[in-house]
Structures are given as structure tokens and as C-alpha cells.
Design a protein that fits this description.
The complex is a heterodimer of chains A (207) and B (121). Chain A contains 7 helices and no strands. Chain A has 207 residues and is mainly alpha-helical. The chains are: A mainly alpha (207), B mainly alpha (121). At the A-B interface, helix 1, helix 2, helix 4 and helix 7 of A face helix 1, helix 2, helix 3 and helix 4 of B.
């Protein structure tokens, strides 16, 4: 315990000393922020498409008739919780606790898998009811927007597993540290996008 | 502050103790994560309770939905993504603002054009 505290205090003191070394790392992190912004624009375009087509149901079923909110609400809370646990993983990493880090990443990945499972379940249910991507312009926009988010989460899952394997092999090094920071940002970002999916696609439809 | 051997060491050598890799050490604490988590849960429950139970309707419901979603976004940015604590907050913030501006133009612009374009479809 005592040595850990010491270590953290040293790192904090060292923070101000030689910023030259940090430039490359913060530049890499900034590069990832730029990627997130392009992703933001991608989702913004899909949201705009959805908003424009939201009345174009071609006389077919509307979202309000088809959505089952309990599952959607469960998905939302699962993703919010996973955003929190990925934060806990980051805290473990900052303490130098590798087991805790891998453990919380595993919890985050498991929650992410639950989210994907529920989403697939929803899609299967919708298709069973006869609502597919070809039903109407509205449903095309719906499936495109929601599944693009789902694909992002799935990619994040595999990415997270790969980082867990690397952490198991190499431990916490400056490189794996950066990778964990980046996946953390990615995961929080997906949570933010989901909040808008939840609000715009689901809540505004069923209100 | 009296003794920090690492900083003198890593001035010369790249290897050392990796203390330059720990520049993100100071970011986030259990407290800020818990506060962020609790806030985001509350901000999710508010619209669910108010809108699904029809306690607010019409314009008020839209206001509640968007206000809570945007607050939720701010909570994630500051409590989880540490936007404020970055080594160069201005750059990340500027990138974010540029991105949000583009997103707003895309969304608001699309809706505006399509709503005033009914004749063609």
C-alpha cells in the first residue's frame, strides 16, 4: 500500500517536470479523439437520415407499435454499467493492479456481450413479426443506425479481448497502458451514442 | 517533492521506470467515477419515469428527453472521458466542438431541408 502511494506521488510530481516525453503520447490520444469525431459525424449522418425518414413507414408498422421497452431499458442500464466498469479498470491500471485491470475489463466485455445479445434478440423478434430492413424507409433507417452502433460495440468487444490477452502477456507497459486508455475512450463514446439512440429512436417513438 | 529520483533518471534515458508513461496517473478517481455513474443512472431514470408514464407530454416531453440526454453526454465527457483533465484540453475540446458543429449542421440542416421539401416527394 505504502509503496503504491509513494509511486503515484512520484508520478504526479514527475508530471510537471518533463513534458517533452508526454507529447507523443498525448498526440496519439488526440489522434484517437479525431477518429471519435469522424465516428461522431458518421452517426450524426445516420441520425439525420433516421429523423428525416421517421414518418416514411409506407403504411406499414411504426416503431411505436413494435418496440418492447423493457428489453431496451435493460440494454441501456447494462451499457451504462459497462461504461462505469471500464472506468474502474482504468483506476486499477493507474494503481498498477494488473489482475484488477484484466478482471474489470472482463466484466466490461461480459456486459457488452449481454448488450449485444439483447440487441440481437430484439432484431430476431422484429424479423419474426415481419419487420425487416426492406419493410419501409423508416425501418431501413432504423436497422442501419442501430446495427451500426451494435457493430461498433462488437468490434470493441474483440478489441478489448485482444488487449486483455496482451496485458496477460506483457503486463502494464506504456504501450498497453495507452491501449487501455484508448479502448476506455471508445467504450464511453459508444455509451454516449447509445444514449442518443435510446432517446431519439426509442423514447421519442413510444412517447 | 524532496526526492524524486525517477524524474532525474528519465531525463537522460528513455527506459527507466516508464514514468513518462504514467502521465495519465492523475486522471480520474473512484469518487469521480461513482458520481458520474450515479448521475448517468439518475439521468436515465428521469426520462423513463416521466415520459413512459405520460407524466409530461408534447413539447415538455421533448425538452425533458433532450435535456437529460445532453446532460448525460456532458457527464460522460467530464467524469468518464476526462476532457477537462487532458494534458492539452484545448485541442481535444476544439476537435470536439468542430465535430459537434458538423454534426449539428448535418442533422438540423437535413431535417430543415427535408421538411421544407415536401412537394418533391
Amino acid at each position: 500500500m505504502a509503496s503504491n502511494k509513494n509511486h503515484a506521488a512520484q508520478a504526479r510530481a514527475g508530471n510537471h517536470g518533463h513534458d517533452g516525453h508526454h507529447d507523443l503520447e498525448s498526440l496519439r490520444l488526440m489522434g484517437f479523439w479525431i477518429f471519435l469525431i469522424t465516428d461522431c459525424i458518421l452517426f450524426g449522418t445516420l441520425f439525420a437520415t433516421y429523423a428525416v425518414l421517421s414518418n416514411s413507414t409506407a403504411g406499414g408498422p411504426t416503431g411505436a407499435e413494435m418496440f418492447e421497452m423493457p428489453g431496451i431499458i435493460a440494454e441501456t442500464f447494462i451499457l451504462l454499467t459497462s461504461s462505469f466498469t471500464s472506468g474502474l479498470a482504468l483506476l486499477c491500471m493507474n494503481r498498477g493492479d494488473r489482475k484488477g485491470l484484466i478482471g474489470w475489463l472482463a466484466v466490461t466485455a461480459a456486459l457488452g456481450a449481454c448488450f449485444i445479445g439483447l440487441e440481437l434478440n430484439e432484431f430476431v423478434h422484429l424479423v419474426h413479426e415481419g419487420v425487416t430492413i426492406g419493410t419501409s424507409a423508416y425501418w431501413s433507417a432504423f436497422y442501419t443506425l442501430v446495427s451500426t452502433h451494435g457493430i461498433h460495440v462488437t468490434i470493441g468487444l474483440f478489441w478489448m479481448i485482444a488487449i486483455m490477452i496482451q496485458l496477460g502477456k506483457h503486463g502494464i507497459t506504456p504501450v498497453t497502458r495507452r491501449k487501455v486508455n484508448v479502448i476506455g475512450l471508445y467504450w464511453h463514446f459508444l455509451d454516449v451514442v447509445w444514449i442518443f439512440v435510446f432517446t431519439v429512436v426509442y423514447m421519442m417513438e413510444v412517447m | 517533492m524532496a526526492q524524486h529520483p525517477h524524474s532525474t533518471q528519465s531525463n537522460g534515458s528513455h527506459g527507466g521506470h516508464g514514468s513518462h508513461g504514467e502521465s495519465h496517473e492523475a486522471h480520474g478517481s473512484l469518487k469521480s467515477y461513482v458520481i458520474g455513474f450515479v448521475l448517468s443512472i439518475i439521468l436515465t431514470i428521469i426520462p423513463i419515469v416521466l415520459v413512459l408514464n405520460d407524466i409530461v407530454e408534447g413539447t415538455a416531453a421533448y425538452v425533458v428527453l433532450f435535456a437529460t440526454a445532453i446532460l448525460q453526454f456532458v457527464v460522460q465527457l467530464f467524469f468518464f472521458m476526462h476532457l477537462k483533465e487532458e494534458a492539452s484540453p484545448r485541442w481535444n475540446l476544439m476537435t470536439l466542438l468542430l465535430g459537434l458543429m458538423i454534426v449539428l449542421i448535418i442533422i438540423v440542416g437535413s431535417i430543415w431541408i427535408m421538411l421544407n421539401n415536401q412537394v418533391t416527394y
